[in-house]
Design a protein that fits this description.
- This protein is an alpha/beta fold.
- The protein is built from 13 helices and 9 strands.
- The strands form 2 sheets. A 7-stranded parallel beta sheet has the order 3-2-1-4-5-6-7, with helices on both faces.
- α7 links the parallel β5 and β6.
């Protein structure tokens, strides 16, 4: 197993413009079981569609069951695969997470932690007092993965995909004030902290669970017009313009389609090139360089603090306490 920062950077034949369907072309995932959180829309539905199209049985873990059923019906028809189901999951509700995990009774080959919230303008906390972006994007998925550990281990070669973002370059995890009790709240700072946590989770999960045949990697999908960005106009009216300027400086497409945005998730979830690889961060279907300062473009790199094993272990222990 190749862990974070170990050896050469991994590249693949796929690029920023590749689609999820292109990544799984020729792959046979028959007999594999997958869960995609937030699988009813955006890159989640395209991730699920590609996995189902390759033959996997896919469960859409969603908040809105009606929307989930509509998405499942669409995927069944387009993928020609009847094994697409829907289950309720609210990532800020410990009871919902426990119920979902307890109800899963099969080996689990693929867990795509895709659901999330972004750039909520006003500081919002869950009933347990956790800042809602950190709670949704990290803690909920952490609790879900821990609850499904035995099912993942039973698969023998399970993969976890932790959907992060270049937004992680905006903030490390501030362990002494996770919930903005003392520091000034900013929508993108809170989002960045949660996305760094997504990367650190992949590092720690691989370190702890590789012996069980479980590896985890983090992914930056790209800039994609989905419902994830519904809070952006309020948080930063010029966000779209600034994102386009960053993409131009980096030489990357300013916007991806959802099918393109799902490509790296599907690569990490299913492609043979990533077998045994864990604890890493991927963008545009490749592993970007590790940096000690934020690049001018704001994309195309992963912060060293997001791959730091000490940070990863600290976050794991803190997360166990917060989700106990």
């Amino acid at each position: 197993m190749a862990a974070a920062g170990a050896g050469r950077r991994i590249t693949t034949p796929f690029r920023a413009g590749s689609t999820a369907a292109e990544v799984v072309a020729g792959l046979d995932l028959s007999g594999k079981r997958a869960i995609v959180t937030g699988g009813a829309s955006g890159i989640g539905i395209e991730t699920a569609r590609a996995l189902a199209g390759a033959g996997a049985a896919v469960t859409l873990a969603v908040r809105n069951i009606r929307q989930g059923e509509e998405a499942a019906q669409d995927i069944r028809a387009s993928a020609g695969n009847a094994r697409v189901s829907v289950a309720p999951l609210e990532l800020t509700d410990p009871a919902s997470i426990s119920s979902f995990a307890a109800g899963w009774d099969n080996p689990l080959d693929i867990l795509v932690c895709n659901a999330g919230v972004m750039a909520i303008q006003t500081l919002t906390r869950t009933e347990s007092g956790q800042e809602v972006q950190f709670a949704t994007n990290h803690l909920g998925h952490f609790a879900l993965a821990v609850g499904l550990h035995d099912a993942l281990a039973a698969a023998g070669t399970a993969r976890i995909v932790s959907v992060s973002s270049a937004g992680h370059l905006s903030s490390p995890v501030i362990f002494d004030d996770l919930n903005y009790s003392f520091r000034e709240y900013t929508p993108f700072g809170a989002y960045g902290q949660s996305k760094t946590a997504n990367v650190l989770f992949a590092v720690a999960a691989t370190s702890r669970w590789a012996a069980d045949g479980i590896t985890a990697n983090a992914v930056m999908p790209g800039s994609i017009p989905t419902r994830l960005g519904r809070h952006l106009p309020a948080a930063d009216p010029k966000h779209t313009t600034k994102a386009a300027e960053r993409s131009e400086r980096a030489g990357t497409p300013p916007r991806k389609t959802p099918e393109q945005g799902a490509a790296t998730s599907v690569l990490l979830a299913a492609h043979p090139a990533l077998e045994g690889i864990g604890g890493r961060y991927f963008e545009d279907c490749t592993e970007p360089p590790i940096v000690d300062r934020r690049p001018e473009s704001g994309v195309g790199a992963v912060a060293r603090y997001a791959l730091d094993p000490g940070n990863a272990e600290r976050l794991w222990e803190v997360s166990l306490e917060l989700t106990a």
